[in-house]
Write a structure and sequence with these properties.
Length: 394
């Protein structure tokens, strides 16, 4: 049976880590996978997570099964992070999922069951795994314009023109904050416009919010979800704790559904959980228990928020340092846009050929689109990186 399979190319994002590991150049720089790194280039476990893990170790009494909805206390805490104080006002249900990707996959399964003819619309460009996730659930996938390379920012006119053509057979995937890969987010006024178009045209927004707290702040970054929740009759939001809690390998995420009325909400939730049951049965417990412990403990929550703030501040500082250094190299105009980008990624505006030169001649690893993980920049590698970028740009 397996002879029928052809070999696959390496994953466009995860494959970079393996190539980087094999590179023997001592100056090599890994700007590939979206994983936070501190100034020393390591991905530490957050102090709040370590403390919560210790508490969990002492208080855990059983390893018996959970339900497909996961830990109810986690679910309620994530609903609060996403929807704020108004969480209880909505006809909403939030359930745990195995990471953001797992959440997207069950959300895709729910869309497929609700309307097998639905088309899922992705921003152009988007996260490299979005298409495989939605197409893998049997859904038609199309793209709407989002980013203009010429303007080095969101092409809002093109985006809204495309959204105005859609109907209730469409699901639009929107990045709640820290657009991946461009780092170019909608303004609050633009979110209001998108919400208005969704109401008018009847499409369902599916907000992928994997970086809450990395752009402006926890509440500010949830503006997208909250603005849509206030206006549209149906909404799906998928969140991840991989980045803001640094729980990457613990696969901790959630799906939040908002429906027109209680009865439809209950039925949609039954189907979502049924998709989960037939896919992975139930999500892993450990990461969610850590998140729940942190969010229900005032001191731990404060510590976590402080750590998150310093991560965000570091990434913003890295952007400016890199842009400053590139300006000193005489190529400032080509890269000044990175100052305004938000979150973990910078979309440099370099070509695939330049990306290949950076990898082959300088051992600098980034996604082919020219996306870099800005947290991979530090005082040690800043000059080497900027000089290499300047050299391939001249
Ligand atoms: C990324 O975009 O680098 C991260 O979301 C990691 C991944 O799974 O691709």
């Amino acid at each position: 049976m397996f002879e029928a399979l052809s070999p696959l190319a390496a994953d466009p994002i995860l494959g970079l880590s393996a190539a980087y590991r094999e590179d023997t150049n001592p100056d090599k720089i890994d700007l590939g996978v979206g994983v936070y790194k501190d100034e020393s280039g390591t991905t530490p476990i957050m102090a709040a997570v370590k403390k919560a893990e210790q508490l969990r170790l002492e208080s855990e009494t059983t390893k018996t099964y959970q339900s497909p909805a996961g830990d109810p206390e986690f679910d309620e805490a994530i609903a609060g992070l996403l929807l704020g104080d108004a969480a209880a006002d909505y006809r909403s249900a939030t359930v745990q999922a195995p990471g953001g990707t797992g959440g997207l996959r069950v959300a895709a399964g729910l869309v497929q069951r609700s309307n097998p003819a639905a088309t899922v619309w992705l921003s152009q460009p988007t996260w490299a795994n979005h298409r495989p996730v939605f197409a893998g659930a049997g859904l038609a996938v199309q793209e709407y314009p989002y980013y203009s390379a010429d303007a080095a920012g969101v092409d809002f006119d093109a985006m809204t023109t495309a959204l105005r053509q859609l109907s209730s057979d469409d699901v639009v995937v929107l990045h709640g904050c820290c657009h991946n890969p461009t780092g170019a987010d909608l303004t609050e006024a633009q979110w209001q416009v998108v919400a208005g178009i969704a109401v008018e045209r009847g499409f369902v927004p599916l907000v992928d919010i994997a970086y809450q707290g990395f752009a402006r702040g926890l509440d500010e970054d949830a503006f997208s979800v909250r603005c849509l929740a206030r206006q549209v009759p149906e909404l799906i939001a998928v969140s991840s704790c991989s980045k803001n809690f640094g729980l990457y390998r613990e696969r901790t995420g959630a799906v939040c559904l908002i429906s027109r009325d209680r009865q439809r909400e209950d039925v949609a939730l039954q189907h979502l959980l049924n998709v989960a049951r037939s896919t992975y049965s139930m999500p892993p417990a450990h990461g969610a228990a850590i998140v729940s412990t942190i969010l229900h403990d005032q001191a731990l929550r404060q510590l976590w928020e402080e750590e998150l703030t310093s991560m965000r501040d570091r990434m913003n500082a890295c952007r400016n340092l890199l842009a400053d250094r590139l300006a000193q190299q005489g190529v400032g105009a080509a890269f000044d846009h990175i100052r305004a980008q938000r979150g973990m990624f910078s979309y440099l505006g370099v070509s695939v050929e330049q990306v290949a030169r950076l990898r082959e001649e300088y051992s600098i690893y980034m996604v082919n689109s020219g996306r870099i993980n800005i947290a991979g920049v530090n005082q040690q590698n800043l000059e080497y990186l900027a000089d290499a970028l300047a050299a391939v740009s001249r």
